[in-house]
Amino acid sequence: MTVIDVRGLRKDFTVRVKAGRFRREARTVAAVDGVDLAVEAGEMLGYIGPNGAGKSTTLKMLTGVLYPSAGHVRVCGLEPVPRRTRLARRIGVVFGQRSQLWWDLPLRESFELLRHVYRVPATDHRTRLKWYRDLLDLDAFADLPVRQLSLGQRMRGELTAALLHGPEVLFLDEPTIGLDVVSKQAVRGFLADLRDAGDTTVVLTTHDLADIERLCRRLVVIDHGRVVHDGTLERLHERYGSRRRVVVDLDEPLATPVDLPGATVESVSADGLRISYALDSATAGALVARLAAVASLRDISVVEPDIEDVVARLYRA
Amino acid sequence: MRPVTATVARPDMTTLRMYAAVAAAEFRRYATYRQAMVAAMFTNSVFGFLRCFVLLAVAGGAAGGAAAGYPRDRLATYVWIGQGLLGTVNIWSPPELAERIRTGDVVADLLRPVNPVMAYLAADLGRFGYAAVTRLVIPIAVGAVAFDLYAPAHPVTYPLFVGSVLCATVVCFACRYLVNATAYWLLDSRGPQIGWVAVSSALSGMAFPLAFLPAPLTTALYLATPLPYLIQVPADVLVERHPPATMAAMVAGQVAWAAVMLAAARLVQRRAERRVVIQGG
User: Fold this and answer.
1) How far is CA A266 from each of CA A244, A286, A289, A304, rounded to the nearest angstrom?
2) Cβ within 8 Å, pair A98-B22
3) B245: exposed, middle or buried (C-beta count within 10 Å: 0-12, 13-18, 19+)?
4) Smallest CA–CA separation between B90 and chain A, in Å?
5) Is there a contact between B73 and B143 (Cβ–Cβ < 8 Å)?
6) Are B80 and B143 in contact (CB under 8 A)?
7) Cβ contact (<8 Å) for B21 and A109?
8) What are phi and psi of A305, to 5 degrees?
9) Alpha-carbon distance B210 to B199, whole Å?
10) A100/chain B closest Cα distance in angstroms
């Protein structure tokens, strides 16, 4: 079942730019320029793009807080802006740089208040809260006012707050921004559990591509308001020529590096003892066998393509 | 473009419980800042003494010892009620909503399944509850210790006063909401905020009783603006400036202004949501 259905989504902003000493000119800028997107129930989608690409603008239109200039949008079968209040009961949203918690109240009281705001039956609330308390280890700081929480603790609170009413769709806008390694791991582990449970559709926007690698099978890349990639990570690597690399350390330098069809020499160290190959069509096994036939190998490592390099190339393109 | 209308839906019990929970949370929030409350009451009391001495001096120089029809004891009572109402009705509230609009944090309010105006009103009534038992009562008690205050003669004055203060709080909330909502269009709402502080201080009865002004101006203020209904009317109710029936009519006027201003706030909020740009990524 398609939970998010977007066709030809567009958002134009009017900006005023200086056009003379006393004159300003109105200029229309398309922040989102004809985005098509279909997300199935239970899917976890990575939605990435460079700064200013239109990610957050898309999220705001999907959650009903921003009017689209054109296009068709349905989330949970509802048109977000006119049905914002109804839709709010069926979605959860976490903005990594904003808070939906009550700053001066203990976290526990924020959760209780959200139970009333979302009209969650007390038994459902208790069950869910118990689940998230255990999973996110909330008890250690649930009685502290939100303003006294660390960023990692607050983010765990934000995730719980966004999920306590049992939303069908969860929108996450940079949920790991500014977190330390341990907190990032805790948040990623939690999201992985959520994905595996399969009853919440998740749209994850982030600049941390490790989040995407660990959590999302499908990736949508947006740039200048347009979708430039929609598919798996593997497809992205294929499309943008990402190659695995094999780095070999030799006991003795070779007179000339070994050549193998389907593999390219990327670099040779100054002493000739380390050679790096990029694999096109050749396999790592074939390359190692070929090298072992002509040289004594000390060490071999296979380096997977780096998603950050691929995405950086994509952004630059 | 579809027409924008502000309708007031009939709330059910679950909705009322939700707003009650929001109000209770806000009550607790204000209760956490006890030192700020003590500092505010101290300041209110200091200015209460200053205003009281000035207005009593005016009364002392007037014929019959009454200024604009207020004898000395009613004038002193008027001052101290005004000092109490200042923090209860909350004329000079910090521009919290405007700041949330400016920073984009207002998105969290818009993503909740509640009407933002009503949710903010519920929160303000929670704040009112805390202020009523602290910032209203204590300055009046301080005034009663230092000055000869007027005690109401009619029993009906007390419930009328409670209703009047509650209505004044709702009217003031809606006025402030409208001032704050200018940030949706202007982003920086300091101009409207300063204008509001100047106008509300001078023309609500906060600085002096409106009867000090020329009669046509006072009449125009009562008929065309909600300002006298913020301080002047509740204060006049407690000092029994008019017969009970007239004061009841004044409180009815407050109810009407509360309805008009709340409808205006909801209308403006809906307009804003149609053109709102949540700031930041």
Assistant:
1) 11, 17, 19, 15
2) no
3) exposed
4) 19
5) no
6) yes
7) no
8) -65, 145
9) 13
10) 5
B7 confidence band (pLDDT: 50, 70, 90): very low
Q: Please indicate whether, in this complex, the C-beta atoms of A84 and B110 are within 8 angstroms of each other.
A: yes
Q: Which of residues 188-247 of B touch A (CB under 8 A)?
A: none
Residues 6 or more apart whose Cβ sits within 8 Å of residue B234: B81, B85, B89, B161, B164, B165, B168
Domain that holds residue A175: 2-239
Encode pLDDT of A274-302 as tens digits.
999 988 888 899 999 999 988 899 999 99
Same domain, A94 and A48: yes
Quick check: is B203 in a domain?
yes
Residue A192 shares a structural domain with residue A286: no
Q: Is the pLDDT of residue B68 over 90?
A: no
- Overall number of domains in chain A: 2
Interchain CB contact of B113 with A (< 8 Å): yes
Tell me the chain B residues in contact with residue A88 when contact means C-beta distances shorter than 8 Å. Answer: 111-113
Structural domain including B180 reads 13-275
Q: Enter the tokens of residue B243.
A: 């017969």
Tell me which DSSP letter residue A271 carries.
T
* Torsion on CA atoms B66, B221, B225, B70, rounded to nearest 10: 10
Q: Per the structure, how many domains does chain B have?
A: 1
Report residue A283 as tokens: 């396999």
Q: Measured between alpha carbons, how far apart are the two ends of chain A, in Å?
A: 34
Which residue reads 């202020």 in tokens?
Answer: B131
Average pLDDT over residues B177-181: 97
Is residue B23 in a domain? yes
Residues of A in contact with B113 (CB under 8 A): 85-86, 88-89, 117-119
Are the beta carbons of B21 and A98 separated by less than 8 Å? no
Mean pLDDT along residues B41-48: 91
Of A214, A239, A264, the residue that ends a domain is: A239
Are residue A220 and residue A249 in the same domain, yes or no? Answer: no
Given A179, A207, A239, the domain boundary residue is: A239
- A136 and A278 in a common domain: no
> What is the rounded distance in angstroms from the CA atom of residue A116 to the CA atom of residue B198?
38
Return d(Cα A154, Cα A135) in angstroms, integer: 15
Of all residues in chain A, the one with the smallest CA distance to B107 is A65
Is B111 at the interface with chain A, CB within 8 A?
yes
Looking at the structure, do residues A165 and A273 belong to the same domain, yes or no?
no
Tell me the two tokens of residue B239.
């000092």
Among B240, B257, B70, B74, CA closest to B160: B240
* A223-250 as b/e: b if 16+ CB within 10 A: bebbbebbeebeebbeeeebbbbbbbeb
B63 within a domain of the structure (yes/no): yes
Same domain, A90 and A229: yes
Q: Is B16 exposed, middle or buried (0-12, 13-18, 19+ CB in 10 A)?
A: exposed
Q: Tokens 């600085």 correspond to what residue?
A: B207
pLDDT exceeds cutoff 70 at A250: yes
CATH number at residue A137: 3.40.50.300
